[in-house]
Design brief:
By secondary structure, the chain is of the alpha/beta class. It has eleven helices and twelve strands. Helix 8 packs parallel to helix 9.
């Protein structure tokens, strides 16, 4: 609802294991998308390879000068983005060393360093802005996600309702922003159009409730056949509905694989009725609420019986967390 202010959020330090985050980051980085966006950041700042690079540093700093600097949050939040700093340094300043003092998903405390860079001063200055931009943006996403997770747990702690992101991400930063959502205690929806089936309202526009099951069964069979032929693993098969009539038709009539039904823009009383329908006809089916979810409404939605809540504003509504790079006293090696 436009114009409704969000409540003062609670920042929750999520319980996400470092090993699971390391595995997730490795899987996302293996796509090559992280490297490509970092190379773009390098070219934005330093120009084409072989060019003059950082001209200001080049005319003011001795190439052999050694320095140490700390990455320091200026405000409280949840950290995300430390995992990609080694790749940033590899692109900008391969001789600069990184030492971390925290880990992704841990709390950010104002004034307490989360990492230290040491090595060539010119290299540190070349990488500074991209390092800070990335960790600030991703920590902002993680912090906002943790606020939504806290709102759900405050009203519904025993029930494992998952907060999921969407594809409403910053162009080029999707894999990193989805990693940040996980750092904040949320979960990734599909990565893109290629790794899951999500039949939305625009795919089934004009189809009556009576025709819906057969139409969906046909479409899902085609998708599963294409996946087998291309040796693609589909994460899930999901169908979006706008009405309880569509949901009832799927529950009673669909014979092919449907893992999740997305309940789009339904008020909470309708979400409760949808959950009752599901419990009566197909208890194992996952229900996902989506559309206009706010920090002040997500708790009530979590109490309706749905299993997942997808929130586009985890990413598109996030504000970067403020970080700075502070020079450390003494540039001598220790």
């Amino acid at each position: 609802m436009i114009g409704v202010p969000e409540p003062t959020p609670t920042i929750l330090a999520p319980q996400v294991s470092a090993s699971s985050l390391a595995t997730l980051y490795a899987e996302l980085a293996a796509t090559g998308l992280v490297r490509r966006v970092i190379e773009l950041c390098r070219d934005e700042d330093l120009g084409p390879l072989g060019g003059p690079g950082d001209v200001t540093t080049g005319c003011t700093i001795d190439p052999g000068e050694y320095a140490r600097a700390a990455i320091v949050p200026r405000q409280a939040g949840v950290i995300a983005g430390l995992a990609c700093i080694p790749e940033i340094l590899a692109a900008f300043a391969p001789t600069v060393e990184l030492r971390t003092h925290a880990f992704d998903s841990s709390p950010a405390s104002p004034g307490v360093a989360v990492a230290t860079l040491s090595g060539s001063r010119s290299g540190i200055l070349a990488a500074e802005r991209t390092v800070l931009n990335m960790i600030a943006r991703l920590s902002g996403v993680a912090t906002r996600t943790s606020q939504f997770v806290a709102a759900v747990r405050a009203v519904n702690p025993p029930r494992d309702v998952q907060l999921c992101d969407t594809r409403k991400t910053t162009p080029g930063l999707r894999v990193l922003e989805k990693y940040a959502v996980r750092c904040g205690g949320g979960y990734s929806h599909r990565l893109g159009l290629h790794d899951a089936v999500l039949i939305k309202d625009n795919h089934i526009a004009g189809i009556s409730d009576a025709q819906l099951p057969s139409k969906l069964d046909s479409a899902i069979r085609k998708a599963l056949t294409l996946a087998r032929e291309s040796r693609t693993r589909l994460g899930f098969v999901e169908v979006e509905v706008d009405t309880l009539g569509q949901l009832d038709a799927i529950l009673r009539g669909c014979r092919e694989r449907v893992d999740i039904v997305l309940l789009d823009n339904m008020p909470t009383d309708m979400l409760r009725r949808a959950s009752l329908l599901r419990d009566t006809h197909r208890p194992g089916l996952v229900l996902e609420a989506s559309g206009g979810v706010r920090l002040d409404t997500v708790g009530e939605i979590a109490l309706t019986g749905v299993d997942r809540i997808s929130v586009g504003s985890l990413t598109h509504g996030a504000t970067s967390l403020d970080f700075g790079l502070d020079a450390l006293d003494g540039d001598q090696r220790t």
